[in-house]
Amino acid sequence: MKKASFLLTATLLLAACGGEQSAEVEQDTEEVMKQEAIEIDFVAANDDSIPAGTIVKAQGIATPITGTEIGDEFLLTPKVAEGEESYVVSNNSKVEIQDGQEITVYGSYDGKTDSGAPKITATIIE
């Protein structure tokens, strides 16, 4: 019985420590991503000058396509957009977006959608 209690206590302590470390690692990873991200240029994204997998940053107004929750897609239209400049963003962050919300996304440039719009998979949304 003492061994079982000891093992349970040790497991809980290790799990608690692991949770703190994973939160720190996640925060460090986010900071690195923000520092490495390049401001995406719509013209460059549209003419395939940006390689898929590039870490990018984009700012604009969100408009839901499939919904506002995590895992959904939305359009991100830069505030200074000329014409039909919008990115399709897949929300892989922990943040739910709101229609008309001004946001900044950090993530991976994924090339273009079937309709030809530049696509970003966002892992950080502020």
From TrEMBL:
Superkingdom per UniProt: Bacteria
Task: Quote the PROSITE patterns the UniProt record gives.
Answer: PROKAR_LIPOPROTEIN
Q: Which organism is it from?
A: Planococcus shixiaomingii
Q: Indicate what this protein is called per its UniProt record.
A: Lipoprotein
